[in-house]
Design goal:
Structural class: alpha/beta
Largest sheet: 6 strands, mixed
Radius of gyration: 22 Å
Order of helices and strands: EEEHEEHEHHHEHEHEEHEHEEHEH
CATH topology of the largest domain: Rossmann fold
Oligomer: single chain
Number of helices: 11
CATH architecture of the largest domain: 3-Layer(aba) Sandwich
Number of strands: 14
Helix content: 25-40%
Number of domains: 2
Strand order of the largest sheet: 6-7-8-3-9-10
Strand content: 25-35%
CATH class of the largest domain: Alpha Beta
CATH superfamily of the largest domain: P-loop containing nucleotide triphosphate hydrolases
Distance between the termini: 37 Å
Amino acid sequence: MSVLAARGLRKSFGALEVVCGVDLSVAAGECFGLLGPNGAGKTTTLKLCLGLIQPDAGAIELIGEPVPLRAREARARVGVVPQFDNLDPDFSVAENLLVYGRYFDLAPREVQARIAPLLDFAGLTGREAAKINTLSGGMKRRLTLARALVNDPQVLFLDEPTTGLDPQARHLIWERMRRLTAQGKTLILTTHFMEEAERLCQRLAIMDHGRIIAAGSPRALIAEHIEPQVLEVHGPGVEAWMARAKSAAARVEHVGDTVFCYALEVEGLLKTLEGESELSCLHRPASLEDVFLKLTGRDLRD
């Protein structure tokens, strides 16, 4: 069963079309990732699906409701973790949850009963009375996640949920997200962390210049677009070595001071490194990041 279906979505701002005929379908209970460089159209697509902005063309259905016609009714069963924390600094941790619950017409007593379980879920037990400016970045992010669950949503939209967090906080958020999918909730995630998408998402779509350019499971995308073995080589004389390596690799990229060799097997490549004491190499399996860079390029996006 699909909880989100979007067909032919288009959105322009002035002369710039930022969403160009996007089709999306998200099944109930899955974690779905939407990946893309800065400016690819990810956040605009999420806003369209939530009914926060009006599409120029296309059809959207969220939890069985047409959007934007009945977006308010759909959002009553949706939670949102925005890209940047927007907690109210004038309220305590518990008060932020209590006030947010009013947006869903929840009775104060009902929200009060949910506060302790939500803070336990977020690892914030005992912080009920703490002011927001006393919390660490990781604590604020976990509180924002807990706040998005105050209405017990069926679907959770997360826009870059772990940006700016240290590894410990990131792994804790990942564990909580896996717990939510185990409970049957649907997660729709945008991220710049390829490891995050590879760990969490059953399916994902890669977006660039307003269009979906690839979709599938992480493993299927890797198998479809990238050779299974990667050798990264750098050091003095790497250009001369690269000329010899091309015959043993399916594809070679020279980026900065590093040569990336993609191959079905690397035994032949490793032999070309014998005696090259000044060259350093890393042999690893292909990853989702390799797919992302191949499809969207390595140029910086601002």
